Amino acid sequence: MTHCLAYAAHEARAELAPLSIERRALRDDDVAIEIAYCGVCHTDVHYAHNDWNSTVFPCVPGHEIVGHVTAVGPAVSRYKVGDRVAVGCMVDSCQHCAACESHEEPHCEHGITATYNGRDRATGEVTQGGYAQHIVVREAFVLRVPEALDLRFAGPLLCAGITVWTPLSEHNIGQGHRVAVVGLGGLGHMAVKLAVALGAEVTVITTSPGKADDARALGAHHVLLSTDAQAMKAAANRFDFILDTIPRKHNVNPYLMLLGRHGKLVLVGALEPLEPIHGALLALNNRSISGSLIGGLEQTQELLDFCAEHKVLPMCELIAMQDINTAFERLERNDVKYRFVIDMATLRD
Ligand code: NAP
Ligand code: ZN
Questions:
Q1: Which of 14, 119, 153, 343 is the most buried (most CB within 10 A)?
Q2: What is the whole-number distance in angstroms between the Cα of residue 343 and the centre of ligand 1?
């Protein structure tokens, strides 16, 4: 076991504060990683605030982890000391159920071990995430960061990126598709960049008029203000595909109305009960609605490689670990441009 300095939520809604945690001694197939950067996901805020009544305190958030390998167990074959690696939202799964065998680890029939607030499969201990100096992770759940990706910007691909990449690939989004992204935050801005890189015509649907210029700078072709009833009405039936990243309970009906024939809306944001959905809005145009959860390991590596090749990088605001509470407040105010990334070197200060 090794001591590790981290930042934790000690109780619901309290400010995050330093905490010393233990990382396990290396198992045969473990990789020890010194964390260089960790992205800040809105999910971290949900857990720190115990929004889903499932947080075990103290909780060290963080599941957009990048860094360097510092040690490997004797059975590790793919990584060596010094390698640039990444860890996302999961650190283990059963590895033999139908879901795991089809590279859909997030849907492991026996449940995944989440990077934080999960349960270690061997000891039952609560897992602690990436707002920390280092982490120990089973080799199978460690990804490789291509040389062409700047480590400072790679972190957000591990959650924000893969969460939007999975539905975009599953629905074969590309040229000729009219795509709308609802909510221009961490997930939303990656969805814009990736959908544009795939060749789609992209519209950002936002509640923030001040984000219109940024949306265009990120590559969006159009911007629609969801609070502008006239503009929303004029956009009825316009889109083939809508990705909804709104982080809380909301009314999906105004967005469903924007889907054309056989249009699909995929929810990735709100993981809680929604306002009732109007059945007629689904029947009209044969619209459908579904959800999507992060993505498998193979797909995450594919995304890292795609971003390296196509130079698709998140737009990041680097912060010191000590600024995490301000970052959480700003996330709650929709004031994020467009992903906070913690420079973990500041944790020593
Ligand atoms: P974020 O950076 O805070 O972005 C969310 C954006 O949604 C905001 O910037 C805002 O954009 C818009 N928004 C916020 N409140 C809204 C409201 N009441 N009505 C309409 N729009 C609203 O959050 P994120 O990190 O992208 O995460 C988004 C959600 O995805 C979180 O709930 C997170 O837990 C969830 N998540 C899910 C998965 C998964 O596997 N499915 C993975 C990661 C995260 P505008 O200013 O443009 O309106
Ligand atoms: Zn996340």
A1: 153
A2: 23
